[in-house]
UniProtKB/TrEMBL annotation:
Residues 6-169 form the Arginosuccinate synthase-like N-terminal domain. Its EC number is 6.3.4.5. One of its GO terms (biological process) is urea cycle. This is Argininosuccinate synthase. It is found in: Cytoplasm. ATP binds at A10, Y11, S12, G13, G14, L15, D16, T17, S18, A37, G120. It catalyses: L-citrulline + L-aspartate + ATP = 2-(N(omega)-L-arginino)succinate + AMP + diphosphate + H(+). One of its GO terms (molecular function) is argininosuccinate synthase activity. L-aspartate binds at T122, N126, D127. PANTHER family: ARGININOSUCCINATE SYNTHASE. The keyword Amino-acid biosynthesis applies.
Amino acid sequence: MSAPKKVVLAYSGGLDTSIILKWLQTEYGCEVVTFTADLGQGEELEPARAKAELLGIKPENIYIEDVREEFVRDFVNPMFRANALYEGQYLLGTSIARPLISKRLVEIAEETGADAIAHGATGKGNDQVRFELAAYALNPDIKVIAPWRLWDLTSRTKLIEFAEQHQIPIAKNKRGEAPFSVDANLLHTSSEGRVLEDPAEEAPDYVLQRITRPEDAPDAPEMVEITFEKGDAVAIDGEAMSPATILTKLNELGGKHGIGILDLVENRFVGMKSRGIYETPGGTILLEAHRGIEQITLDSGSGHLKDSLMPRYAELIYNGFWFSPEREMLQAAIDKSQERVSGTVRLKLYKGSVRTVARWSEQSLYSEAHVTFEEDAGAYDQTDAQGFIRLNALRLKLLATRKRRG
């Protein structure tokens, strides 16, 4: 690959991406544009601007954007319509943020005339795949630079030496090994590495970033009502809110009640297993609520087919194929299923658990007349079940007859 002339860097303002910024300048002699996304990670982002300027980036080449609403509206919500869980448990908090970051990197490259983008993902993880597959799906001619796969800064000591050599400020707590690595956005917090690397050891309590330990959560349960329209949450306790505001509120409630902690050993796309502690308080509540409203508004055929598609859909997101045609095909089917998934769910939050306790909808398929234990006024003729059972038993009876002959 020829040396790039201008590079758009996914920049957090932290030590690693600041080293990458300077490395791009020294290695290629290129102009660097920085992009910092506010995905709801809970950190002040303006210091990233000051850090970038300190490292010689022109003010017009520093992009800091609040993309929280777009993140929830266009990425999180479509995913939650599918009830997506990777390997049956993981709510895909990191996975779903990467295509949005890549999208903006590619768009900013086009706006600024840059011929390359760069990211800080290592060569061992999934994020390198997610960033790059998304970028190539949006611009097949874009160059992607992944310094962790290219440079010789292979240890913390070498990184610190490079930073000192180039006058990159180093926080005191960055000179030693951090106890674990954290990635956060509005949907979740992910912690992994170092103190968490041995799956036989229980994660220490100090790992938790946004969720109260269930043991320390309030002793009294709390009720919350979530209203849906076409599969998306639109209101909490009757108050209409924007997508990001809803997730923020649910995060507060879930965090307070110790909801959404997951200790998972997962299979990375690159082939290895890794252990992570995921905190997804609002997402855990949202999943339960969405399942609750689907129970009364989605027919069995649609619901069961949708559930059978979900593992494949979740795997596509986890592996970085958000912008693939197969994900878009599945999304079209999922969105079709959600046309009448509207109504309200009441949930009980208590010491690490969230449970649906009531649900109602004008689109409900639930018929009390058909399921009542009392007189059903002719709504259902129980003698019909006899022929239904006989027809369904025919195949089984023929198989049993053959088995007896054998």
